[in-house]
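Milestone M4 deliverable, item 7.
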Amino acid sequence: MALILSIDTSIDSAEIALEKDGVLLKSEINGEPKNHGSFLQIAIKNILSSTNTAVNTLDAVAVANGPGSYTGLRVGLASAKGLCFALNKPLITISTLEILARTMKQQFMLNNNYLFCPMIDARRMEVFTAMYNFNIDQVLPTQAMILDDTSFRQQLDKQVIVFSGNGSHKLKEIINHPNALFANLETPNKIAATIAIAEAKYLIKNFGNLAYSEPYYVKDVFFAEKSKK
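Output delivered:
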């Protein structure tokens, strides 16, 4: 059992939550992606203050480490690692796609033969995606995928797939298959799923490497530097 601060700034909706023994104590949500950096530290301070929680009583810090917004991932992981270093607490890293898949399962009464396919917008017709079964075991690995009208056809011919996330509308516009369902979860409330995963990982001591944990971008990232004059 644990007192865990969870940080998710990986996609459009940033969510910060404090949970104890898997039960939510307090949370704050920001729906403006460009403001996640300024929102994060204030939200953490407000949550700890409003729950009368001393920061050194945290047992761990959990963070969604991707895929997702490159800036959002760096902001979230840097803050989580900073807290863990300062407090000498373990770091828990969580896949954003797993959070979305578990959110789909929690929010919809779905047949246990369905597959869950969360999608994160990666610009143009590309998405970051993976596929999970009803037990949230990954059956298609995390990848960057360029969508077309043949995407997932082999899987859809065999069973129902539920698509969600802020990239799923791209697929909805180009395929028409009776086994393709689209959940209205472009900006979901992911807090329940995040704290459930964080608690489960804490109990089995599935911690990230504090020194070497990095955002999971999926694709290589190149940061341009301005030439010095």
